[in-house]
What does this fold into?
Amino acid sequence: MVSDEEALDVEHLQDLVQQQGDTVRALKAAESPNQDEISRAIEKLKQLKIDLNAEITRRKESGDLLIKSKEDFRQKVANSLESRLFYIPSFKIYGGVGGLYDYGPPGCAVKANVQKIWRQHFVIEESMLEVECPSVTLGTVLKASGHVDRFTDLMVKDVKTDECFRADHLLGDRLEELIADPAIKKEEKAEFEMLLARLDELKEDEMKEALKRCGCVSPETKNELSDPYPFNLMFPTTIGPSGNIQGFLRPETAQGMFVNFRELLYFNGGKLPFACAQIGQSFRNEIAPRAGLLRVREFTQAEIEHFCHPTKKDHPRFNEVAEVELNLFSRDAQLQSGKKEPFLMKSGEAVEKGIIANETLAYFVARTHLFLKELGVNMQRVRFRQHLRHEMAHYAQDCWDAEIECSYGWIECVGLADRSAFDLDAHSKASKVDLQAYELFDEPIEEVVFEVKMNKQVLGKAFKKDQKFVIDALTSLDETTAAKIEKDFEESGETVLENVQGIDGGKATVAKDMVIEMKKKTKKVSGRNFTPSVIEPSFGIGRIMYCLFEHAFYVREGDDENKAVFKLPPQVAPIKCTIFPLVNNAEMNAVSHEIYKSLTKLAVSVKLDTTAISIGKRYCRTDELGVPFAITVDHRTIGHTSTPKDGTVTVRERDSCEQVRIKADEVAKFISDLSLGDVEWSEATASLEKVVVAQQE
It folds into this structure.
């Protein structure tokens, strides 16, 4: 028999079984086998196998209970959100359609509050330029950005039913099952963990092999799957009645900001750095939408494009966030052997050590941390995960995701990327419009330049409308390129110019007779044109909201399970306050209406509930909506035969259930201050009369 400590370690038990098996085989292979010794060894091997199977069964049952617990919690949250009309499936009376949801009144209010906080936190406090661009986007724009050719996911089909699935989702789910299976050997587990880490980078043939290796089948029917193939996620459309202009519903809001860079730069006085922002709808024709608001076909994005000099990525306000402690899951932490865990580090130190590439990116990572904290997200369940090298586009300098943990695991809710100059270069090349900024030097500098005398007649015949772009390229040669051109002319009579802005393919073949003379000279220059880099924070509003709902949800301890509560911060809550007349009494109703008008004048969202049900039930109903405060107008407010009138009302706080009394004509300002977060409940109520709840009820 193994010890209790050994029984807790499946891998150790597997090793013991293997070692004992080797012992049995060695005893049998001996020149003079001892049957008694062999029998004892076999019995020990049998017992080890029994212990191993028992531990595997225990682990599986424990894992099943954990999964069931998560599913039960998730279902309770979903039931509350739908029953209280935070959101519901779109077109519900027609059976609905996957990935589309309607926000009800409380959902709309929460979403508006999240967006208001985001706009205050970023647009207003950072002096950003906010724009609003159409959801229908010209096809040539998305062709230039790469979406038409590369905005795809790998899809597989059930070979019998033709049901479609995202290949990486099926493989990811299967890998998590295999990794969690205690019967899997540690060598295989390590292989599956590595495959899971590489999931996003798998090419078509690699995905095909991995699906077969892991035994992936159709989830419901268990039928075989087709080979994976790419599926473009954009919704196509046409613009205009002729149908000749190709368009798409935008897959992101960013492209509208890139194509307006020239106008925004002019609006900003030609100065860099500057940032623009946009909140709007984006559309992705997801193969298999799931997990409620976490993967949908229409969603709200809040995106920022911060334009800066490519070699000057320090941030003037970085010192304000240098001491913010971040939960970082760096590239090295993800690739280290053994247990992979994030670590706490201040943003300033992360930049100093080169973990985050530059101050501007780190600044937005820290500001994102503060934004999520302000929303009420549980910061113990937030981490910033750095993209591995293979996850990043070739042009990206550094990328981080703000991931929030919920019952579905770690969910990417914010992407923060240093995209270099890729986007502006791509649109400049496709549109043949200059999307550059001008840098004025502190002092003029001397530069080696080449004066090129060209035969414009020959150039014009050869390049026609592209002549201007070739001339621009020839008048901005560096010394290395000029030397190459002279050498090419001598050897072959022509040269190929690379990276010519404005010409398809970026290349132009220039013959020797097009260039009359090239002369090297030194001149003083006071500035130069350059293409700015872009730092892009991109927020998924719906994903953040869902994680916030899960973090805020609880069932009041010791009460009936139906007494669900959303512990939403006052700034986020859909309704800040409810007003309850204790009974349906004309005088109480009149006071309640006056308080209602006072609150609405202060822009506090409020609900007046005069229904003839108990106060306790009304509290429960509003707790499930996340309403943080409730005002009750009672007999002391208006006076009663046995209760002298004192003009006070009770105010109840949702989470502590504490109640205090305050003058009716002071309660509106009191609630307004609490709702804005200007004061905490404990501080605001320190001098007020406390109500003993049992007596009140």
